[in-house]
Specification:
- Helix content is 36%, strand content 23%.
- It has 3 domains: 213 residues, no CATH class; 76 residues, no CATH class; 114 residues.
- Strand 15 and strand 16 form a beta hairpin.
- It contains 10 helices and 20 strands.
- Helix 3 runs antiparallel to helix 6, helix 3 runs antiparallel to helix 9 and helix 6 crosses helix 8.
- By secondary structure, the protein is an alpha+beta fold.
- The strands form 6 sheets. The protein has a 5-stranded antiparallel sheet with strand order 2-17-4-13-14, with no helix packed on it. Strands 5, 6, 9, 10 and 12 form a 5-stranded antiparallel sheet that branches. A 3-stranded antiparallel sheet has the order 3-16-15, with no helix packed on it.
């Protein structure tokens, strides 16, 4: 059985708040100098921060962790809108797809190469799929396994994972299938489990998270209890070794030439990242290319506004549920009001709840007529302010929770306290984080 790791605990807090851990962008990877600067910021913060006590409750933990991840997700959105080799935000070139319902495209090349990026037509023959096992449909109230401890192995990526479970008197097939589904999903081994139910019968369904056929021709995963440590028989009874769907590679045509991919998301010539959404209609190809500068910029601004609005709505919900501190709301009000005028000239209207609505025609017109770069400079300043704010929240979410000041630092005679660093960056709540 799998062990409960620190990441499981952290992710459990995120799950209860409806959050998911942010992915990695260039803002989440750092050089030695950047890491040194982050450390210096933490040390400086510990020198200047007063000694305080906070409410060590589940609500405080959830609020701090949720704010931290929400800020990181906003930072990720901003990171995806800028070129990796550039210090300028919102300069990312945008790929175009003539039919996003079939193929979506993202430009991943350099800014310098964007002018020479090739365009092409792609026709999707079939999507990549994963392996699916569907077990035997067993009456919900039935149980043919004798009370005992059973186990079975799932072989994934050349590694065997053993799962043990106990059948007790009174357990039904549905009870055990539900238990096994939760056990497998918690293990995070690359296999998702669910129950298929029909007319009083249920079956355990196992699906691989990976798609495509392995080079060696093997299945994505295998289920067996031939050499397991506890009692065998569960695999045959539940039928979870029955392969219902074989894994398949994606098949598509680029300018008429057939190609294959293990996944529905892949790169082309280190220039585009394509994601296949559905099969093409017979003989209908999707055209992929680079959008014009104004189109790229307006799309980047729309993506920024979408990420900002998600950030505001989630943070407002977290703050309302926490109900003990309004500091975050006050700071966001100040930031939004400061840029309200300059954003309005671009067709970006700040609403009463601090979200932004976009006048698409006004935005496009403003960008087309922005010959001196004033409009672009305004949105760049707003984006930089958001990035600064998200960095501050991610570094020290504890600044936004309710706390009682015990003692202020002696002005002019402060010193770093390495033992306080974790507390002032927000993650010292108990023995495991």
């Amino acid at each position: 059985m799998s062990t409960f790791s620190l990441s499981n605990i952290y992710n459990n807090i995120l799950t209860t708040s409806g959050m998911s851990a942010a992915g990695s962008t260039r803002f989440d990877t750092h050089t030695k100098d950047e890491l040194r600067n982050i450390y210096k910021s933490i040390v400086t913060q510990s020198k200047e921060s007063p000694l305080y006590l906070f409410d060590n409750s589940d609500a405080t933990k959830q609020y701090a962790v949720s704010l931290k991840e929400n800020a990181r997700q906003l930072r990720q959105v901003i990171g995806e809108l800028s070129n990796e080799n550039s210090t300028q935000l919102l300069d990312k070139k945008t790929a175009s797809s003539s039919n996003a319902d079939v193929v979506t495209a993202k430009y991943i090349g350099s800014e310098e190469a964007a002018g020479e990026a090739p365009s092409f037509d792609i026709e999707v023959k079939n999507l990549a799929s994963g392996q699916v096992n569907v077990g035997n449909y067993i009456p919900d109230g039935e149980m043919a396994l004798e009370p005992d401890t059973y186990s079975f192995d799932i072989h994934v990526n050349d590694t065997d994972y053993e799962f043990q479970f106990v059948v007790e008197n009174g357990d039904t097939a549905h009870d055990i299938e539900d238990k096994l589904s939760r056990l497998i999903n918690r293990s995070n081994i690359g296999v998702n489990a669910s129950l298929e139910e029909y007319n009083g019968y249920s079956a355990l369904r196992l699906a691989s998270t990976a798609t495509g056929r392995r080079d060696d021709g093997e299945l994505s995963f295998r289920v067996s209890d031939d050499n397991t440590s506890k009692r065998a028989g569960a695999v045959a009874y539940f039928g979870i070794d029955n392969v219902a769907t074989q894994p398949e590679n994606a098949t598509f045509l680029i300018n008429g030439n057939e190609r294959h991919a293990y996944s529905n998301t892949f790169t082309v010539d280190k220039t585009y990242e394509l994601t296949l959404q559905s099969e093409s209609a017979e003989g209908e190809a999707v055209h992929i290319g680079i959008k014009a500068d104004v189109e790229s910029l307006t799309e980047n601004i729309n993506s920024l506004v979408g990420g900002y609005n998600d950030f505001i709505r989630r943070a407002a919900e977290f703050t309302a549920n926490y109900g003990k501190s309004t500091k975050f709301t006050r700071e966001i009000n100040t930031l939004a009001n400061f840029y309200k005028g300059s954003l309005g000239f671009l067709g970006l209207n700040v609403n009463e709840d601090n979200t932004i609505s976009v006048d698409q025609d006004g935005l496009k017109t403003a960008m087309e007529n922005d010959e001196d770069g004033t409009g672009l400079n305004s949105i760049q300043k707003f984006t930089n302010a958001l990035l600064t704010k998200s960095n501050k929240i991610a570094l020290n979410p504890m600044d936004y929770v309710d706390k009682t000041v015990v003692e202020y630092r002696n002005p002019g005679r402060t010193f770093p306290n390495p033992y306080a660093t974790s507390m002032y960056t927000g993650m010292l709540f108990n023995y495991f984080c």
